[in-house]
């Protein structure tokens, strides 16, 4: 019986081995980065972008080695027309199981009103299954006057506090990004919210510069049903901030009752993220990386026009329909609505 048993085992192993595709390349995660070396950076601000970093992570799920594997990146207008087609360098040999990366840098692609990138994973090797050789990253519309910045606009579910060890009421979840311009002013904050909020639930938008809090605003529920964006506006209490190439963490501090483990905040656990670089939490007083990205976005003034704060100008009485008194240590100019200068007053 032993020879028969050997033949049966060999036959079964052979059927299992050859049940796999000989070559089966599969995209794990495509990326598109704007002047940012890590993660999938989405931004509506595009005025000073010089380079786009495109790349993908992939592996060969087949049983045989693939040869001459490369990436094709097709840039498309919203209409579907092609802007440009670019190719990465070629990997001569791709073994099974191991993960690989392919990347390219596209210089000076110009200013477009919105585009997407279609990734194709190609090789000299024949494949039976090519359905997972393609993926698309959509890109939001470009806005020249304001910067709309976020890591993702695509929620995959709600935030479960148990997914972060030690997370408690009063802790923070957020995502990192770099300043999209030289200096800029925070304008508004939006978070994707589900359903009605449980009793006692509160949320505060927070912005940190290199782990130092620079602005905060409370977010109030707008009572909409289902998934929706809630937007609140910064008070500009911290004035002008946003140094170029500084790293910011932008997110929400959450207060909730102990029995509420699933909170109505949208998170993304799937779409094109380098979670170790992009997503953070403050648990207690400790910064930690997390395995999802909160679905949040911010609107900024990228021109960085600085407001005047703590001015000593006084105007009284107010209100009045008669004469007024202006007192200031600085010079003051008074104009008509059509721009005509009426009077210039020296300080004091």
Descriptive keywords:
2 helices; 6% helix; 348 residues; extended; mainly beta; six-stranded antiparallel β-sheet; single chain
Overall description:
This protein is mainly β. It is built from 2 helices and 26 strands. The chain has helices spanning 2-19, 275-278, and strands at 25-34, 42-43, 51-60, 66-77, 82-87, 91-94, 99-107, 115-122, 134-138, 147-150, 157-160, 172-178, 185-193, 202-209, 212-219, 228-233, 247-255, 262-268, 279-283, 286-289, 293-294, 296-301, 314-316, 325-327, 332-335, 341-345. The strands form 7 sheets. Strands 15-14-17-12-19-20 form a 6-stranded antiparallel β-sheet. The protein has a 5-stranded antiparallel β-sheet with strand order 2-10-22-13-16, with no helix packed on it. Strand 14 and strand 15 form a beta hairpin. The radius of gyration is 27 Å and the shape is extended. The termini are far apart.
How would you summarize the topology of this molecule?
Layout: H1 2-19, E1 25-34, E2 42-43, E3 51-60, E4 66-77, E5 82-87, E6 91-94, E7 99-107, E8 115-122, E9 134-138, E10 147-150, E11 157-160, E12 172-178, E13 185-193, E14 202-209, E15 212-219, E16 228-233, E17 247-255, E18 262-268, H2 275-278, E19 279-283, E20 286-289, E21 293-294, E22 296-301, E23 314-316, E24 325-327, E25 332-335, E26 341-345
Antiparallel strand pairs: 1-3, 2-10, 3-7, 4-5, 4-6, 4-8, 8-9, 10-22, 11-18, 12-17, 12-19, 13-16, 13-22, 14-15, 14-17, 18-21, 19-20, 23-24, 25-26
